[in-house]
Design a protein that fits this description.
binds calcium ion; D-Maltodextrin-Binding Protein, domain 2; Fructose-1,6-Bisphosphatase, Chain A, domain 1; 8-stranded mixed beta sheet; Inositol_monophosphatase_SuhB; binds D-MYO-inositol-1-phosphate; 263 residues; 2 domains; Inositol-1-monophosphatase; 5-stranded mixed beta sheet; magnesium; IMPase; alpha+beta; globular
Length: 263
């Protein structure tokens, strides 16, 4: 295994352990509102510190970009992108769906990615060119060949500045024929579910780099496709993400085209 992937897994598990510990005492946590409906707790910060400390000890020359602490460390070709707790709202409301997401970029290119679900003890991991795994076993995107009975994941906009009307139009064109739509609440895990074939596809607008960095590599290494809603390569910068197995991806893109033409 890629040694940096091994470290990333170790860091995500240690951070996940801290999250698990606090999951039983959520009522005691002080919750801050970063922005409208955007919560952060000391758990987010502690989990991030735990992950960064472990990685920094191993790689003192690397740079870090964490959701809670921003950019730190020296200028480096290596940059770790970390969402210490993806799904904070679920965590706070007692819904057992959240994750730790850790990715490594080398010269701007994703090279390692881990999404860890601390409650199910599921580790989704990928290294560029080496495939994707779930708890050490190889995973691939689903084999479904059309939207017929496809199960799709999504994120419904809830922030004030998001375009709910546009989202509702995409929902309207993507729902027909499917087996249904799920909104689990952790985008990193949603992407891991596409990579492992649990979801046939996924779309969401306005995500951040830390939500998706690990998931993007998982999808690519599991044989899936990922882009923005136009099929272009801007998903990392715009946070508008469409991901699926290649056949479902093509159909989703086709259905989205008339809606997205105006945007
Ligand atoms: C959130 C989750 C959620 C997505 C939000 C993200 P956070 O991350 O990924 O699924 O819909 O846009 O902000 O804030 O819990 O780390
Ligand atoms: Ca997140
Ligand atoms: Ca987070």
């Amino acid at each position: 295994m890629h040694p940096m992937l091994r470290k990333a897994i170790e860091a995500s598990r240690l951070a996940g352990e801290a999250i698990r510990h606090y999951a039983n005492q959520v009522q005691k946590l002080d919750v801050e509102n970063k922005a409208h409906n955007d919560f952060v707790t000391k758990v987010d910060r502690e989990a991030e510190n735990i992950a960064i400390r472990l990685l920094q000890r191993a790689y003192p020359d690397h740079a870090f970009f964490g959701e809670e602490t921003g950019k730190q460390g020296p200028d480096s070709d290596y940059e770790w992108v970390i969402d210490p707790l993806d799904g904070t709202t679920n965590f706070l409301y007692g819904i057992p769906q959240f994750s730790v997401s850790i990715a490594l970029k080398y010269k701007g290119r994703l090279s390692v990615g881990v999404v860890y679900d601390p409650l199910r003890d599921e580790t989704f991991a990928a290294a560029r060119g080496e495939g994707a795994t779930l708890n050490g076993r190889r995973i691939r995107v689903s084999e479904r060949s059309s939207m017929q009975n496809a199960l799709l994941g999504t994120g419904i906009p809830f922030r004030a500045n998001q375009n709910l009307d546009l989202y509702l139009q995409t929902l309207k064109v993507l729902v027909p024929d499917t087996a249904g739509i799920r909104r689990p609440g952790s985008a990193a895990l949603d992407l891991a579910y596409v990579a492992s074939g649990r979801f046939d596809g996924f779309w969401e607008f306005g995500l951040n780099e830390w939500d998706i960095a690990a998931g993007v590599l998982l999808i690519q290494e599991a044989g899936g496709l990922i882009s923005d809603m136009h099929g272009n390569n801007t998903h990392m910068s715009t946070g508008n993400v469409l991901a699926a197995n290649p056949k479902v991806f093509k159909e989703m893109l086709k259905r989205l085209h008339p809606v997205m033409q105006k945007y």
